[in-house]
Amino acid sequence: MAGAKPALSPYLNEDHDAFRVQVRRFVERECTPHIDAWEAAGELPRELHRKAADAGLLGIGFPEKLGGVDVPDRFYQQIVVEELARTSAGGLIASLLSHGIASPPLMYAGTPEQQQRFLRPVLAGERIAALAVTEPGGGSDVANLRTRARRDGDHYVVDGQKTFITSGMRADYITLAVRTGEPGLGGVSLLVVEAGTPGFTRSPLQKMGWHCSDTATLYFDGCRVPVSHRIGAENAGFMAIMMNFNNERLMLAAQAWASAQLCYEESLAYARERQTFGKPLLSRQAIRHKLVDMKSRIDAVKAQLDLLTWRVSRGQTPIADLCLLKNLATSTLESVAGEAVQIFGGAGYLRGAKVERVFRETKVLSIGGGASEVMKDLAAKQLGY
Amino acid sequence: MKALVSVKRVVDYNVRVQVKSDGSGVITEGVKHSMNPFDEIAMEEAVRLKEKGKLTEIVAITIGGAKNEETLRSALAFGADRAIHIKEEGDVQPLTAARAFAAALKKEGAQVFFAGKQAIDDDANQTGQMVAALLDIAQATFASKVELDGGKAVVTREVDAGLETLEVDLPAVITTDLRLNEPRYLKLPDIMKAKKKPIETVTFADLGVEKGAALTISKTSAPPKRSKGIMVKTVDELVSALKSKGLV
Ligand SMILES: Cc1cc2nc3c(=O)[nH]c(=O)nc-3n(C[C@H](O)[C@H](O)[C@H](O)COP(=O)(O)OP(=O)(O)OC[C@H]3O[C@@H](n4cnc5c(N)ncnc54)[C@H](O)[C@@H]3O)c2cc1C
Questions:
Q1: Which pTM was predicted?
Q2: What's the CATH superfamily of A14-123?
Q3: Which residue ranges have their beta carbon within 6 Å of ligand 1?
Q4: Which residues of A are tagged catalytic?
């Protein structure tokens, strides 16, 4: 078949390709030129959320009746993440798409009124949503979270702290995990807290990477939240949080893969151009082997990523596999980003190189959304060991 | 009022174009293609005019092989109502293209023919003008603003001396310049809906057009390589370097 484009994936069709072209265009025009300024500012402009919504990117995978875009599979979300990752700024993905972890509980368990009020404006890019589960006292042990919500008439009175919260400084709506009942996983509920509610304050955090993503500690001090802001039944929040984690892990794996692929492409291009001892770096066996090792690991991650994306698209929830995929993808990124910086030499250690930024941002993917050690424990348990 | 919009499939503007070793043209095999950016601007303008109620139907038209269907699907995702695919393989020169578009315009009874001012592959900047000449209708090229009202179009053109505003009777040819608008991002639902819109396939023969070569390309070559720059340490050094080259 001379001239015919070979199919590169059994999962993708021309709709995916056409969609990717548009996302890439959006990223090249609306994001790439501004990334350094946003990183310096420590946050994304609100205007970007509106632009992304107008381009039809924020609503992917959310219901059309709320302003979202129904999609036949999860590869569309993956494409958005992959293309945003081309900027090298992981914080862009985390913060622009923080509703991707904050809003699904509303989509699955919210009342129509809650969806209209807290979800629709977020999908329209007019409001920003954040998910607050992690506490200063512990992030991995979600079942033992301590932020307390005490019932008082038709309100909950919330006391406690959340930390490391992505989009936490800018968020208008916080999807907040609280303890409404007994200790352990059976006493957790989800509430939506609006910015400006008395008793709710926040302070910014400085980080190793993800600089364009505002991260915050949130303080709740006698904060009164209407009972009507509770998502789903009381004390039924833990399952929603866990479901959310499965989704988040798939997305984090996609982000890790795309960042690793970027490191590979950047270092290959650099090795082609860079001359050492009178010859291109790429002619050296030590470097060639590094690059093919990077490629083989990246491709293996992609195969598993796509397979699990396909399975999740078909309604499966392979919890253990998702945990292990997250570990495979993030450990691959750690190694690939390290080798990429090595190939760049001193230039890889300086601000301005994409690989420098990715390298600084590897750890957050191995920690956030379930740290590697915790992922292994959960996978082993799920596999019945 | 109906508009016909021509959309050409060209090598993507991001591709670093490479000349074939025998100098007969540039390498197009295995290279990313997309809609000519000026044609995207033409599509966007037509869609905006339809959204304002100034047009009732938009028909996209292209000339080329099977792969051009992709370009038409993009046009349909933009908002064209239907499309015409003039299925012809091989190189098509501006005059042949203009004859085909003129025939289609007549057949469709469209009042406006929108085209990009030029295509970024051969930069000929001829087709729109030739369509107007063949049909003996008005033309307003290099549009930076377009208004349609009644039987007229008011078009602001970017010319060397500044901006020129023309009022032309319809039917007319309007070719679009870079600053006319910023084409929208095509949304996924529109991309999906585009697959259901009709594409009519015709040939030059169906349109009564003879494919002829008025031009022959004698040679294609890469631009000369830029030679290495030099670093100067002071402004004086810079000035004397420029002087020695006779540049100031
Ligand atoms: C930039 C950034 C953004 C974030 N955004 C959000 C957000 O938007 N919302 C949110 O809720 N959270 C967010 N987090 C928090 C993140 O999910 C947590 O950091 C993560 O779950 C780990 O929790 P922790 O930091 O409290 O670590 P800990 O739970 O204290 O764990 C510390 C270390 O010990 C290991 N460990 C823990 N328990 C065990 C065990 N039983 N056996 C062996 N090893 C163990 C862990 O794997 C880890 O390596 C974010 C974090 C970062 C860094």
A1: 0.90
A2: Acyl-CoA dehydrogenase/oxidase, N-terminal domain (1.10.540.10)
A3: A 130-134, 138-140, 164-166, 207, 210, 215, 364, 367-371, 373-374
A4: 248
